[in-house]
Amino acid sequence: MAKRKFNFENALAELEQTVERLEDGELDLEASLKAFEKGVTLTRDCQEALQKAEQKVAMLIQKNGADTLIPFEDKHDD
Fold it and tell me: For 75, which of 2, 26, 39, 61 is 20 to 30 Å away at the CA?
């Protein structure tokens, strides 16, 4: 069976919905536990996707073995 491609935006939206359902307090104990378990899985999946994206970005910004990062300047500081 082929594994479905992970979609970060969909997983994050589902996680937000799951959190809202848990916060509403309308679920019984069994449903709350299942929702919590799903939330933990989604959180781990999203964290893994973000970590992979961060690694890709780090690889892309490296040039000749040295980082070519430019410091971020916050234009809102007065």
Answer: 61
